[in-house]
Amino acid sequence: MGINTALAWEVPTHDMMRRMDIHSAIFIKGIVGPDTALKISFPQIAFIGRSNVGKSTFINTLTQQKNLARTSNFPGRTQEINLFLINGNTHFLDLPGYGFAKVAQEQKSTFQDRIAWYLFESEYTPKWVVLIVDANIGPTPQDLEMYDELKRFRHKVLVIANKIDKIKKAKLHAHLASITDKIEDRVIPFSSEKKIGIKDVRTILFS
Ligand SMILES: Nc1nc2c(ncn2[C@@H]2O[C@H](COP(=O)(O)OP(=O)(O)O)[C@@H](O)[C@H]2O)c(=O)[nH]1
Ligand SMILES: [Mg+2]
To answer: Which CATH code fits 29-206?
Structure first.
């Protein structure tokens, strides 16, 4: 028995480390329905959340790119499902944001249609659905509705408590509890601003 036996399963191998590291990220295209670009059998990781929750910024932070997912201060602009290729072997899908009141009703139903199509009607089964909620605001009724639907469809869900940099330290615990109380899956505290939680998320999504 080698001296490293006890540690062997705890210490990530070089190969595991490489897998968790994001060394390439490219934008493929915006998709609006069944698409040949998605037919390839790469695992899909889908990102969903309320408009303005910081989803595009989150994807940029995770991939260490400044402008991969277009960040915008104009909520509701991302109408298509943006498809990215990560490390040449994984697809990221940036789904349209939900629940922004100022978007015209007609346009809004298109967003909701595309979310519903991909998550609840299409043939695709993402390896993970990453649901991003604003930790400062707490889970909104729509966030919880989305979470329940994801569970009903038996998706594997990772919840991100985003923008924790906005919360005063003394209140952080209570804010996080307001999320974990209602979520039966893992919740990762995250901040793109302060670069918190990146490693945790990568480890979960890529191992
Ligand atoms: N304080 C703070 N603001 C953030 C963070 N992530 C994103 N934002 C801001 O939230 C706004 C919306 O971000 P964006 O990524 O476009 O949101 P999306 O609509 O969900 O894609 C922008 O003004 C971002 O600068 C974060 O971790 N902390
Ligand atoms: Mg966006």
So the answer is: 3.40.50.300
